[in-house]
Fold these 4 entries.
Entry 1:
Amino acid sequence: MTPRKRKTTEANEILAKEPLAPDVQKRVDEFYEQQNDLLQKFREDQETISRPSKKMEEEDERSEDRNLAQTTFILNIGSLIGNLAASIISGSLSIMSTFVDSSMDIACSFVMNICLSAISKTDAQKYPRGRDRLELIGVILCSVIMAFANVSMIMQSINSILNDTVDPKMTNSTIAIVVIQTVLKAIIMWLCYKRGSTSSLVIAMDLRNDLMTRSLALVCGYLGDYVWRFADPIGAICVCTWIAYSWCRHAVDNIPQLVGISAERDQMARILNITLKHDERIKYIDHSMIYYTGLNAQVELHIVLDEKLPLKITHDISHDLEKNIQKLDFVERCFVHVDYNCDGD
């Protein structure tokens, strides 16, 4: 045994005998849990690359996204009419904030439907790489629309408090309208979360906000009518503040993907693992860049092969590697460059 291995063994024995501090033990447990998750993803990736191309699956997924978006759009139209009626009947600012939210929901659903429809009808000659980035642009645009609309409603609620023009009247009709649409939105939200795609998660987040805001608006409107009338505009302010904050945060979270943020370490590890296991004739990975320019990642790999290999074999190794990596769900495009030595270029 070499001196270095002996020291490592002795250190491991000391760590095994001496209990770790709770915070250190927690970090160690988290590390091993992350490693186990990564190994599980490695196994799933090997199963993924052994399956046929995912183009037909992607088209089916787009179709499901469009169906969910269209269903939500129809539901939002019904909610808009219902919330308008409830706002007129009750005169409640909290209920009126849900009407503003519903009108913005329709605008956002309209934007997402246009984006998904444009993606599905892309002209390959005009857009050879497709127009998948439209989906992310649509998400950011929806976030901006929702934030501005709710800030306007906050200003109106503050003015009503300052001018003392608050007089909500909650009736059974108002309560029934809000409760029915809340139940329907809960069902669609569950379907969207079950679907799990980027577009469906955006819709689910919007529906989740609707459930929270409508519940809060109903409670504050009731309190404003029967307990303290200023509870109604305060409820409207709370509802609109939450919506504006959540959508602004969502926009900020998505902007880095649009401007080229690097992929997560686990995603890098998965791609490097596939590369190293792809073919035993791959001697080294000279250089790798994995980054986002939209919803999915771009992959650039520089691999080193024996300079004496025939062109046909070199091409087949690199081309098959590209196709395998592009089967991963977070990869949009992969480029593999072949070199004969490690020059870092």
Note: The chain has a mean pLDDT of 81.
Entry 2:
Amino acid sequence: MNEERIPLPRPRCRSLMGVRVVGTGSYVPDAVVSNDHLHQRFGFDSEWIVKRTGILERRHALPHQATSDLCYEAAVRCLDNADVPARDIDLIVLATFTPDMSFPSTACLLQDRLKVSAAALEVQAACAGFMYALITGAAYVASGASSMALIVGGDCNSRILNPRDIKTYPLFGDGAGAVLLTRGRPDQGLLSFSLGSDGSGGDMLSRPACGSRLPPTPELINKGLHYMHMDGRAVFRWAVAILSDTILDVLQASNLRPQDVDLYIPHQANIRIINAAIDVLHIPRGKVFYNLDRYGNTSAGSVPLALDEAVAEGRLKPNQLVVLSGFGAGLAWGTAVMRW
């Protein structure tokens, strides 16, 4: 990593009103991988994992499952919860950085599984992917280019992790979440959002091989370059800063104070990242939703999975304010304050 890199200023916050979420859904695979399992299989220190991350267990996709399968299950549950027939969908925006294959897109695979007549596009912004997809879909709905948009985020992280790397393998899990967007009242939607990137920090979190730059070869695979690589300390520092800074950005742009928000749903990357950021802003931890202890970091699935569980638990009700935030490889981030 280049310690001397000087990031550009963050893009200014913008607003997308007149949209609303009419349904949420999520799915995690059945295979539960506990810290004890990792200790028995790989010798990882269970107490170290909990102390450094807050994670107790995570889910791994079964051998026959891929990212599209997780996304399909989340989408079906979302449609059922919204009581909306699949035929009403006219747009699918799917976020993932672990697609089933390079092409066709996982979005098109999902469109086929759902048997809907709709445009299907895919975005890749790693752990910020769902926020990129949500804001993209909201722009389509707000402009009238879509009447009912299905927004999905999902990843099979277990397929790109080195099981011998304690710095990455215990942190991530597999899962997916979905929301359904349609037109809403003028006062509903994204009061303010910050969407940005800093490619100068790309080498902090990457999967170097298996792209057009470094096509897979036996030599590259022997070096483990087909696995995720992460500079944990650098990512930690950046994540704490970008989470706290962009929450403050969107609140100030909306003329809100931290205490005005009913619920905060940050990307479930690491308990220490989340707590460090919210403590800077003096946000009570009781206003923050956590589920990373059960799922770990599910990347693009993280925010919608947490959002679906928060809704199911009754922690988010109509007209309340919620802050959503995703951040990760790219480097990329998306943070928004939304009237539910």
Note: The radius of gyration is 19 Å.
Entry 3:
Amino acid sequence: MEYGPDERSVFETAASELYEELVAQAGMPVGDPRIEHDGELLEPFSLLKQIGLVVLDKSAGRWLPVDPSIVQSRVVTPLGQQGAELIAESAHWAKAFNGLSNAWRRSPEALRGPFAELRGEAIAPYITSVVADASEELLTAQPQTGRNIGQLPKAIEREVGALRRGVQMRTLYQHSARRQVATNKYVAAVTAEGAQVRTLDEFFNRLIVVDRRIAIVPGQGGPGESVALAVREPSLVSYLVDIFERSWERARPFTNRDTPLVRAIEAEQRAMTIRMLIGGHADPVGAKRLGVSPRTYAGYISELKKEFEVESRFQLGYEMGRRGVTGRDVPPAADRGNVPREGESA
């Protein structure tokens, strides 16, 4: 017999009280009217009998209690087995639903809504598809950290194709991207076709906007899982474009040949490092914000120690505080008025 919540409720109340009475009185006479037909204890007694907690001693004419530890496994073990089977069955159902969800995400219907989630290998083909459909403008923001350098050749092919169709393209990187050989090759390829590329000292998230109608942003996934969100909702796309435009206005043209510009960028990275130190951020956080490796970030801090003629970070913090350094003041080399923007004359 299977036992469920109803039987357990009787067992925990009336049946337990009856069992304790049987233990205290060394059993119960067979003819006790309380356990006969329509007796007040018939239901709890029947449950104790079914479970095996009472047995009939025919010679004495009494119902005797049985040690619960002997009987327990008869009830609990089957329930545990049923629980394990239910858990396994639920896992199979979840797996089946996941398969259907993946099929839905790959379907055209899922990608036509205001929001669509993309995972793993589905991301790159989708980006290639929407960029191939671009007819007017392509805006991209690529933080240096987390960029897959192995995908740059495909990105060059995809975006050069869009530029040759007459699509206008603007791309933002962090300043640290200027040190990457592969990124420099990418920038050379797209700017030769008319793209504009700038860099910024601040950290930002990855963003792609196509014709101001579709935006692709990072999604939330588990460890090691690639997730992207395609956004078609007009108000949200407009908001993301506005964020891009504000960042674009503060950014610097991507070039390593303009000496005043290079000095200005170095000053901006210095200021950002100071702000990270003053803010008490750990080195990995500061390195991510600047888009550099922890080793490069440690080198920036070492340069600051030399500049302020100190030996430790504590001394560095004290000296910066004493001099009123905040990382938000603009050194002469970083004066934006001395460095022309793209399309401006010096």
Note: Residues 275 and 327 are 5 Å apart (CA to CA).
Entry 4:
Amino acid sequence: MRKFLVFLFFCIPSWFSSAADSQVAVFDVTAQTVPEWLVLDAQVEPIDKGSVAAQTSGRVSAIGVDVNDVVPEGHLLIQITNTSQTAGLDQAKAALKAAEARVSYAESQRKRLADLFKKGSVAKRDYDAALTESRAASSALKQAKAGVVQARENLGYTRITAPYAGIVSERMVSLGETVNPGQVLLAGYSFERMRVVASLPIRYASELQESTPLKVTFPDGQSLTLTEHELFQFTSPGSHSFVLRADLPEQDSPVWKNGIWVKLAMPLEEKAKLLIPETTLLRQNELSAVYIQEQDHFILRQVRLGRAHDGYVEILSGLKVGDKIATDAYAVLSSQGGLYAK
């Protein structure tokens, strides 16, 4: 049945409309230079993403976030019990005070014996011993100060905060659970800096320059021009294509969602094409044709179509430069009483 329709629609080129169709306007087919775009499927992903792990031991006493929460920078994520860490800090502070007292006493002894040694009242051995003790006390003081810094840092590890504004993508710990250093607790990413990632076929890699602007189109129709992009220096083993990354503008709120698919367009070298208005086409299912003018009548001719360009359609075959076609194919069809040809 379909073959019969094709025959009925297109196998009648010798049939033509009458000279009465001369009032129908015609369009001169010419070659036009139009921008060519390579459209790729791309996915949005964060530039900064990672996980948060425990750096001290303890029991989880509070969890301030859950999966899908948007958190600002510095927000409390997880609180770990700090009993032992607080005790360690108090112990370090006490050791620091003892070291400071030792330094004060050793330094006063050194000064006293130094005056006596100049007067010849004490032996050099006694002065050297006081000097050694003063130096040892100074070293112990430095060690005590470092211990306080370490103890304060260990106490800070019990409060886990967000390193940047982002979204929590995974939680691996529950309230009351005991954690150890190195155990992963949360995972997330920053929504402020996002990018699109696509696979660029090898044959187009030479056409992408550092200054080439890319155009991204989101599912809601929003389009952006991206000027910062990066092409990997090696191909993916599976697809034999290059990974292409293009940075999106920074955003204050998560508008562009992680993982959504978008269209990434790259401009190619402009080429001359045959373009005709869409109104010149006569369509029947997936088959297309135009009315071409020959002397004082129109003849129906099948054409093969390419891409659409703002109200125009690219002709791949069926027409040549200089052909004249009816601007309104359905007007010609109407003048023939609804028949494709007379």
Note: The longest helix spans residues 83-119.
